[in-house]
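Lay summary

Proteins are chains of building blocks that fold into shapes. Our project writes down both the chain and a compact code for its shape. Here are two examples, one after the other.
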Amino acid sequence: MKFNIADPATGGQKKIEIDDEKFIRPIYERKMGQEIDGKILGDAFAGYVFRLTGGNDKQGFQMKQGIMSNTRVRILFRKRGTNYKPSRTGERKRKSVRGCIYGPDLAAIQLRIVKKGEAEINGVTDIQRPNRLGAKRRMNIVKTFSLDLKKDDVRQYVVKREIKRKDKTFYKSPKIQRLITETRLRRRKLHRTDVKDRYKNTKEATEKYEKLLS
């Protein structure tokens, strides 16, 4: 069976083939999105943690998240998503997709490195392939690089582009969407305080008006 291993930190990607059934069988009955210990695939991957991100069966049908089946099924697609791109508004189409549960009918399995081990993987972790464009939204950056929201600074993982013009070199990076900063927290606190003050003033004004009428 073929395994496609990708490392989002370096941009490296490599295809390996494993034919020994004892290394493949522990992946069966697992679901897309789960994490596995790299030692399952052999001692060369000891210390690594991989995330199962997809695959395709022997006929080339891709796996789809959310389809709780280890076989191929035909589902009716109603809107744009994975494995389907409508050509016009309101179009529906029935297509065959592979379920998200892994089984022996697969021909290729896709893995993403979540935690790096001690040994290097040739062509994956020992190279640097810079991305020209990267994720802009905060949570997408966190998912791509498997960051810790409390410890890691998301702004340090934005993909930057180096631009050279004559004798000047500068870098461009996208603005992070939905980034929670100190300014955002301060404005949120002021907004909530303003709402409470308006509610309190309205309540006092109503009580004064009712007292005046009585």
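And here is the second example, written the same way.
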Amino acid sequence: MVSPVTDVVVIGSLNCDLVVSVPRLPKRGETIAGSPVERRPGGKGANQAVAVARLGARVRLVGLVGDDNLGAELRAAVAAHGVDVAQVRALKGSASGTAFITVEEGGENMIVISAAANASVTPHVLGGSPGIGALLDGAGALLLQLEIPVATCSAAAKVARERGVPVVLNAAPSPPKRTAEVERLLQLTDVLIVNEAEAIALGGSSDPAVLRTLGPSIAVVTMGGRGASAHDGTRRIHVPGFTVHSVDTVGAGDAFCGQFVLAHAAKAPLEEALWRACAAGAVATTTHGAQAVEGMAVQIEELLSHVG
């Protein structure tokens, strides 16, 4: 079992997930009847911070919510899992981020996001008290996603690089195009994690070796139930997925990232980090809700115990 790092800093989004279940995902222009809508805490930043906390590490989340009732609920939900939310602030006059999620039987999903307050997590916000430099003091890793502005991620990654803090970027959702700012962020990234669709959108290929040419030292491509592949400049490693009873894939990628960042910060071999991350992603699909998995660390170890 990988020992938790002292601290992980996550800069990212908090969303209210509005979830409806359907027999199958609708086709373009099609209307399908679904279940009653469920409201759950989410957002890639919040989900990944919760995953890290559930695995036993200290984690600080930096982000913005609206000054509405949802914002207070989202902040409280993350804090209930042991995440330090002192730097999650309410933005006056703004709504909180919202994700509209459709989940079909078997767990596959479609997601539309309204960023709201998350779009205002700017470099200027990070420059306020206590400042990103102070937040990164003693950190084992910085974990970023793209549900906040790319320029903000770049600014944080630059400070982390200057302080020798590893930068792990989950480049999701995929940026509409590879701008100069996206290029800069990739050059400041130590580990890039994307799914197959995001890999193709970002680098034109799902081959992690190709993605490494964009700047990161390690590129990881997740493939759902088929596992994950990675390249560290020396070799390509593939780890197959785990067979579990999946009911909801929302948050599986976030659990993968949370476990991977811990293993990487603890200097675990890349193959071990992939195994652990795939196990975490699999465990996350066995329950409804991106932040709902109980006993994640124990379940991960149980899955890994069957790896020969």
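What can we say about the second shape? The mean pLDDT is 90.
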